[in-house]
Amino acid sequence: MTINETATAPAEATASRPIARNITDLIGNTPLLDLDAFAQRRGAKASLIAKIEFFNPLSSVKDRIAWAIIREAEESGELRTGQRIVDITSGNTGVALAAIATSRGYPVKFYLGDNTSPDKRKLLETLGAELVTVPNSIFIDPEGLTKLVEQIEREHPEAYFTNQLGNPSNPTEHYRTTGPEIWRDTEGAVDVFVAGVGTGGTVSGAGRYLREQKPDVRIVVAEPGDASLPTEEQPYPAEIDGVHKVAELEDDQLPPNYDREIADEIISIEAEAAYAVARDVLRETGLFVGASAGATIGVALQLSQRDEFAGKTIVAIVPDSGERYLSAGVFG
User: Fold this and answer.
1) Which of 72, 184, 240, 250 has the greatest CB tally within 10 Å of its CB?
2) Which residues form the Tryptophan synthase beta chain-like PALP domain (predicted)?
3) Mean pLDDT per 10-residue run, the chain (332 residues)?
4) pLDDT of residue 308
5) pTM for the model
6) What angle do CA 95, 293, 205 make, to 5 degrees?
């Protein structure tokens, strides 16, 4: 029997897709992938599904909010032709903002921690972004982020500060797109939704939509464990890039876009454990996920092993690709 005879025939096209006129036309409608076999090898009693956000054109979930922020700022007149865009970013929002801004004639400048993945920094530089590096230790101070925002606004009063952490366009876009896509593609079968908190927009916006459709849906936040957080003694631990702690923090220490009432449960996972999950997912499924996806899938696996979720469907967000962490130690 020949290889051709044993190969599965390609699926026939079932629907046409219009030709996109801009990269922003390609944002959203990302696929779901069944990870049941992977999960069942680890004792899962529930079905595990990944929402693959690196199918967005700039390869992360942040494409959604970058386009929403720019689009709505243009419509309102807050963002004017040729105006500089500035923000604080751990990389992915900056990449999306820079690509969209470049195509629309806006210069960009970003402030980012000195522990940001070298792969993300290279992407930002390639896209023409001006970068200002700030020490990771600044985020040990509970007021560090507020002080940095004040510095940016003082240094660039003429610029448009996209403010991904506090811009309401962020959770609104996830309410408008991410949540409805999950509901549609699972045909309403989603029982548990797992996401991390970077800005808080994904879990707050998509979570709110899903809860409106299904009041008993369980919303779970994956956050880094204590050993994965910077301290004065260890300002550069192994970290889950772009995923932040939310439990036990005061309101003024949380991203303004994070609705702390949305989460039914918060589960911590250490960076090394998240890295191990990302490596296992790659080796066993071929899905090349980043560290933050290692965290969400790792937490989803913990949930899937509980008797209370037997027969249920868990959807975990995969924020970006492992290609953005090749130089960050995630894959060795």
Assistant:
1) 240
2) 23-320
3) 44 70 96 98 98 98 98 98 95 96 96 90 96 87 88 95 96 98 98 98 98 98 96 91 94 94 98 98 98 98 98 98 93 89
4) 98
5) 0.93
6) 70
pLDDT score for 312: 98
Provide the pLDDT for residue 117: 87
Helix axis angle, 271-285 to 291-304, nearest 10°: 90
Positions annotated as catalytic residues are 62, 292
For the chain, the maximum distance between any two Cα atoms, rounded to a whole number of angstroms, is 72
Query: How many DSSP H helices and E strands does the chain contain?
Result: 11, 10
CA distance readout (Å), 322 to 82, 241, 250? 33, 12, 32
Please give the C-alpha separations between residue 97 and each of 67, 136, 239, in angstroms, as whole numbers: 7, 22, 23
Could you tell me the strand order of the sheet in which 265-269 lies? 32-34, 47-52, 313-318, 192-196, 218-224, 265-269
229 Cβ partners below 8 Å, 6+ apart? 237, 239, 245
Phi first, then psi, for residue 49 (nearest 5°) are -125, 135
What pLDDT score does 90 carry?
82
**Measured torsion, CA atoms of residues 295, 300, 303, 305, in degrees rounded to the nearest 10:** -110
* Beta bridge partner(s), residue 195: 221
Say if residue 296 is exposed, middle or buried (CB neighbours under 10 Å; 0-12, 13-18, 19+): buried
pLDDT at site 2: 39
Contacts of 278 (CB under 8 A, 6+ apart): 289, 290, 291, 293, 294, 297, 322, 325, 330, 331
Residues with Cβ < 8 Å from 52, sequence gap 6 or more? 30, 31, 32, 33, 287, 318
Q: Which residues pair with 112 in a beta bridge?
A: 133
Indicate the DSSP class of residue 224: E
In this predicted structure, what is the pLDDT of residue 11?
52
| Amino acid code (one letter) for 70 | I
Residue 14 pLDDT: 57
